[in-house]
Amino acid sequence: MAERFVYGFGGGSTDGDAAMRDLLGGKGANLAEMAKLGLPVPPGFTITTAACNAYYANGREWPEGLEEEVARAVAELEAKTGKRFGDASNPLLVSVRSGARASMPGMMDTVLNLGLNDETAAGLAAKAGDERFAYDSYRRFIQMYSHVVLELDHGAFEAILEGYKEENELRSDTDIDASGWKEIIKAYKKEVERASGHPFPANPEEQLWGGVAAVFRSWMNPRANVYRKLHNIPEAWGTAINVQAMVFGNMGETSATGVAFTRDPSTGANRFYGEFLINAQGEDVVAGIRTPRPITRAAREEMGDKHLSMEEAMPEVFAQLTEMYRRLEAHYCDMQDIEFTVEQGMLYMLQTRNGKRTAKASLKIAVDMVDEGLITPEQAVLRVDPASLDQLLHPTISPKFKRDVIVQGLPASPGAAIGRVVFDPDEAADLAQRGEAVILVRTETSPEDIHGMHAARAIVTSRGGMTSHAAVVARGMGRPCVCGATDLRIDEAQGQFVASGRVVRRGDLITVDGSGQKGWGQVLAGAAEMVQHELSGDFARVMEWADSIRKLQVRTNAETPDDLKVALEFGAEGIGLCRTEHMFFNASRIAAVREMILAESVADRVNALSKILPFQREDFVEIFRLLDGRPGTIRLLDPPLHEFLPHSPEECAAVAASLKVDPKALQARVKELMEVNPMLGFRGCRLAIAYPEIYAMQARAIFEAAAEVAKETGVIPKPEIMIPFVMSRKELAAVRSIVEEAARDALAAAGVELPYLIGTMIELPRAALRAGEIAEEAHFFSFGTNDLTQTTLGVSRDDAAKFLGLYVDRGLLERDPFVSIDAAGVGELVQIAAERGRLARSELKLGICGEHGGDPDSIAFCMRLGLDYVSCSPFRVPIARLAAAHAALSEKRPSLA
Amino acid sequence: MAERFVYGFGGGSTDGDAAMRDLLGGKGANLAEMAKLGLPVPPGFTITTAACNAYYANGREWPEGLEEEVARAVAELEAKTGKRFGDASNPLLVSVRSGARASMPGMMDTVLNLGLNDETAAGLAAKAGDERFAYDSYRRFIQMYSHVVLELDHGAFEAILEGYKEENELRSDTDIDASGWKEIIKAYKKEVERASGHPFPANPEEQLWGGVAAVFRSWMNPRANVYRKLHNIPEAWGTAINVQAMVFGNMGETSATGVAFTRDPSTGANRFYGEFLINAQGEDVVAGIRTPRPITRAAREEMGDKHLSMEEAMPEVFAQLTEMYRRLEAHYCDMQDIEFTVEQGMLYMLQTRNGKRTAKASLKIAVDMVDEGLITPEQAVLRVDPASLDQLLHPTISPKFKRDVIVQGLPASPGAAIGRVVFDPDEAADLAQRGEAVILVRTETSPEDIHGMHAARAIVTSRGGMTSHAAVVARGMGRPCVCGATDLRIDEAQGQFVASGRVVRRGDLITVDGSGQKGWGQVLAGAAEMVQHELSGDFARVMEWADSIRKLQVRTNAETPDDLKVALEFGAEGIGLCRTEHMFFNASRIAAVREMILAESVADRVNALSKILPFQREDFVEIFRLLDGRPGTIRLLDPPLHEFLPHSPEECAAVAASLKVDPKALQARVKELMEVNPMLGFRGCRLAIAYPEIYAMQARAIFEAAAEVAKETGVIPKPEIMIPFVMSRKELAAVRSIVEEAARDALAAAGVELPYLIGTMIELPRAALRAGEIAEEAHFFSFGTNDLTQTTLGVSRDDAAKFLGLYVDRGLLERDPFVSIDAAGVGELVQIAAERGRLARSELKLGICGEHGGDPDSIAFCMRLGLDYVSCSPFRVPIARLAAAHAALSEKRPSLA
């Protein structure tokens, strides 16, 4: 038997249900479901997604059987409605709408009022008792059909309409009466014939097939293609088409149309929430031509609206609607977003779907529904999108606050902050130490600015993209950041910046919004009104459920006590990546670091390192205290040494003077250390192979600190020493022995015994491939997926802005591989390393500490590979906890099915 | 039964033979073999390499059974020689020498004259009738033993000897008589007791065990460890020890010692060649204290030497020796390097081994031996080390020429060349065009200098290592190059350079020797006398045999007609890599290239590209003509665009003026295009994704040229278009369609049909992993192992000098991975890609075009993976042909065994 392409719904008999979403699309499945529930759905039928695919497979011709099935469905629809296509006295009019498996709002085409021609328009006028309504509908249909189906240019029709109004000195469309519309319709039809070479089709069947073809075609239109790529919707899914009898909310004062949510989508409060318009079509609510009114009386009173609410104006219909939304919510067990139309006192349900909501609302609704017994805690966890928590965790600008925007840029790191403008990182650090809230404004940032970035409440740069140094570091630190504000020109000499003619001076108060407003990060004048994050209540309950579900541990990437405190408050279970180099940039240490780099003998180097040692030890004492027995993975020095040296001749001169060295010698060393490709240069454990003293000092500092904290608190710290940029077993073995010797010495001197681990980053393809051997020397692997992505794809993150966006736009890459792990490439290397590593050492601990550690898709990937933990920046810890729970639940699902 | 540790040889009964090299070491196996052949070998025994390993496994204690076996072997030796350890009248004296599987000349220790003490020295004196000889031998033994076995400092013994001479007013050691040596011996023994706390051991058994332990120990001494690492000799091989009865070439005028080659090791001529000394020990020949004499009369007469040759002085012994060398060569079927001693008229053979020889000699000997019926052509092919051909292919400085060295540097690219000094690449190009031979001298080179480097006969830089830009490019072009000549200071303003106080001016004639003299590349004053390469005769015959054996095709990396001509002369079977960017740097085109880069619209860019098109087409016409129907792989534009732009403000200003653009706009574009890690930047096919016009122009130029040559010559060119830096199937598909469209248009316009291939470089780990998908879009893969090594190991070749040497020295890497492929890392990716690619497309053509294409070990690796071809720089083509034959034979061997 041939495949069935058409499923009817409504009017007493319905073929599909909500479970058939893949075949009927979201809208079609829900219409069927509502019809089955006995809700008043205008009858119609759905042409399946399979028909769409068959249409394309068949070279854009109707697949066999479709025409017959549609004809039968039309006949059935005529029977259900008692109306007929082309019947001059009681014409059947339908809408033809797309409806894919996944929502793709506005991406595909729709035709309304299909079935109108000169005869049926007259019939509709008679039946509605409203000639103007009928001919307005007719001209709308011609316009829409000409554009969508006949693919004619908009402009000509607008010109006709505008010309008519001008000639007749009318101001707006509402001034045009029935005879006016009739005249316009004549002109429209003439234009169609001129432009297309054919008269406008009067036959409703012909109109219907034209509409169906147009909707199928629109599945492949450019904006749908782009949308699918952006949202990872496979082309092979196809779209369904819903052909549904028209109902009219604009048939007079007993007609209305509206949209509503079963709970408040903004706060999550359990109260009916929606808007409606009397004597209006659905588009009018959406298009904003007329201002819709609240549905409930309570809402109307709250808003001080004078017009009657629906509850008051149409109490009976309102009671029906109330009954229906209760049934829908009880049925779907989720907050519903519904569309309805009242045609001459009759309520029709046009759509229901799970409603979009804010992060705050999603938490509240989920928790409330558990309390109401509607859903389980596991379902509640799945109801909250991990990525949406980003909104909640950072302070944000109050939605009520009126923004005075100075300049816009990229929303590079979320959250908002208020502070005084500074241009110099040292000044930022100084002022912050004195308790001032400052915002660092720079052309671009470099690793030397880290201390200033950390001291600042937020960062603004005039150059660089979403993956620039400033953006990456700011996200890591949880500082709001606006990057690439190209209209902003900094004049450091004058101590000011200029943007669109406005001058902002050093010390002026500004607010930075890194979360983005319509896709733009903003810099605002003055101090905005803020909304703080809330970690208790609904949030805490959902996170508690998530923690009980997830199997992956969640650690944090943190190196300062402040960051670590935030991360622990957010539920981090330890440190997954403590970058020791950030500690080297501190102003009070950089001199000794530079002295170490410039040392010409081992003795000189050891001497310089001995000056850094006490600082490093103090850093680790503080960190171990805060960790309070939780594990802490500390990565030894990683960046190339030239990052610690000045670059310009002026900076070199200044540094040379302060270090009392020959400026020429300093410049020569700087030049000697400069690299063509620093990412692939003299860094990571390569430094320790050349200068073992550096890692020896760091290891000593760590173990002296651990011993001190163990003695002081009685809680044994759990240091995990991580060796970066390893490419072979021998290399790790050589570096490991440096660390072990220092650990032995430091612990023996302190008289403390302390278990510790030594492991490595897997961040080079070679390390992933040789993981079996490397695991012989490593207690743990931490996947450094940032660098692994750079090397596997051959993409420098600092330079990727030139082409990565283009790649994602063109669908050559599904996602930015620095945001979500490239499972097919980088992911295979991670998998190879995990398998080979565990084969060689079954108890090998596996984690991830690249930025992917905070990305939900990447977390699911880590879960599937059986990793032990993910580590992410402090502000992403709750996201990771929730995403890990999602991953655990989605892994559980197949076994339940 | 316990393992046997000791094997006797000589004196009528011999346990081992030449096949037991692994167990007995090279020297021991050959001594046994000679003894079995009935040659007069002083008897002795070999302690096996297994004993050495057992000694180390046993914590440096004698393994069980060794002591008994050695005792039995000593007793047998006493029986064979009729002498006894410690016998005052007829003492047994032995040498104790190391002998590993692979030759490690001078790396391990030796003890001679072992068995001497006060009594046996007297006995030796009586027996030899020469007291001075006996006591000189005794003191030498004490000195050697104290150093090697007792590990005492040299200095004290030298001080005693010098002190004695001073006191007695003697000028040289030869002035010391027997009583003098006796006195010195007393002082030596006193010093031994003082320094070691023990008297010098008089017991020969104790001496023997001391010697054996010392030789075993020396397997692990630092210089042996380094040597093993450098020559890839596993530590686990261990060394054998040969204990052999001493014979003395210094027992008067009927005694002699000598070394000889069965054929001339320098020319390969089939004539006996060697040197000897009457009344001397082996060391004297080697040490160069006395000048050895020719062995044959013919050689003596040639040299005009007045002293008698061995042939004349000892005709009987000479006849014996002649007979022996003939037998040895016939037996080993290879040229032998032999050592012999004549003790009072008795000839003894001390060693035979395959003789080292020059490349020229190795070719001649191999060919002659085939003609003589001694070996097969296959054996002849294996006799020639592919790497050694490097000497032959480049012109070299005549060994007779007296060098006037101006400065030394790294021998970065082999060969020698003469030319006039220029400092500016443009000037180099200009002068070369006028037929001048020039040598480009630069501080360092950059891609902008390519045209000048190509125009120059040789290149000298004062900075940069073996993997610097100058070195890599020069090797690729086959230009001799000396890099990192740090003593050379260029003063371009004055038009001169200074080195060690000597001034060399622009236009002065110099000679560059990039092959290396004692490890140093040299710059010589004036024009040296040169020796040209010879591609006919023996070379041609060996290469012909190699070609009939090898299965891998050999192509070349070439982009200029000159390079291609050389490569074809050297036997290249096509082009494996034609880098089109080199064509862009040409002075007459760079303006249009820059205009293209600075274009602000597609139209401007297309316009600029249309100016480049005729040049590109001409390039390809010339190349296709030369290829004469051979395949030519052409890589489309690869480097980041900023490589084509000026960098310094001055250069920007000059270029802006010539292009008539705003210097600020140019600088801004330069800055915008600059990259932090250009290796991982906006390059390769990423350029074509952003600017499809570029590849379209290049493809058009290629196919227009191909069509033109097809029409002109009637021979159909075989273009193979190669897309660089691909990381995914989609990317390749997108670029492929650009090329196909251009090909279609160009061929249709010319009315020519032409088959062509489109393939990709596999040079990113992701491409290797996704090779299955990528093969769906590719007719061929070419492994770009340079970039694949950079990304897989995370090592930038430009920056690697800072640590790669250290890694190789410390054994963390076996070889420089840019010279010989890293089989365990990069190699696995190549294997994965080859397997996945062939699985998806069985006829997929596979090749390699990184620098590894010319490295024999890497070629063997490619052969094992079943690649179709290797491609290398022109001067390495013969090396690759021969190495491919070696690889084919070594693959054949197991199946024959």
Descriptive labels:
alpha/beta; eight-stranded parallel beta barrel; seven-stranded mixed barrel; homodimer; 30 strands; 897 residues; 46% helix
Structure overview:
2 copies of one chain form a homodimer. By secondary structure, the first copy, chain A, is an alpha/beta fold. In chain A, the strands form 6 sheets. In chain A, strands 23-24-25-26-27-28-29-30 form an 8-stranded parallel barrel, surrounded by 6 helices. The first copy, chain A, has a 7-stranded mixed beta barrel with strand order 12-16-15-14-13-20-21. The first copy, chain A, contains 36 helices and 30 strands. The two termini of chain A are 29 Å apart. Chains A and B meet through helix 27, helix 29, helix 30, helix 32 and helix 34 of A and helix 27, helix 29, helix 30, helix 32 and helix 34 of B.
Helices, strands, pairings?
2 copies of one chain form a homodimer.
Chain A (H helix, E strand, L loop, with lengths): L5 E4 L11 H16 L7 E4 L1 H9 L8 H16 L12 E7 L9 E5 L3 H11 L2 H18 L5 H14 L10 H19 L7 H15 L3 H9 L8 E7 L10 E6 L11 E6 L3 H6 L5 E2 L2 H7 L6 H4 L1 H18 L3 E8 L2 E9 L4 H13 L5 H7 L5 H5 L2 E2 L7 E9 L2 E7 L2 H9 L4 E5 L7 H6 L2 E4 L7 H9 L3 E3 L4 E4 L4 E4 L2 E4 L3 E9 L2 E6 L4 E2 L5 H13 L3 E5 L3 H9 L5 E5 L1 H4 L2 H12 L3 H26 L3 E5 L13 H11 L3 H11 L11 H6 L1 H22 L4 E6 L5 H22 L6 E6 L2 H5 L1 H5 L4 E4 L1 H9 L10 H6 L16 H15 L4 E4 L7 H9 L4 E4 L4 H20 L1
Parallel strand pairs in A: 13-14, 14-15, 15-16, 23-24, 23-30, 24-25, 25-26, 26-27, 27-28, 28-29, 29-30
Antiparallel strand pairs in A: 1-2, 2-5, 3-4, 3-5, 6-7, 6-9, 7-8, 9-10, 11-22, 12-16, 12-21, 13-20, 17-18, 18-19, 20-21
Helix pairs in contact in A: 4-5, 5-7, 6-7, 14-15, 14-20, 15-20, 20-36, 21-24, 23-24, 24-28, 28-29, 35-36
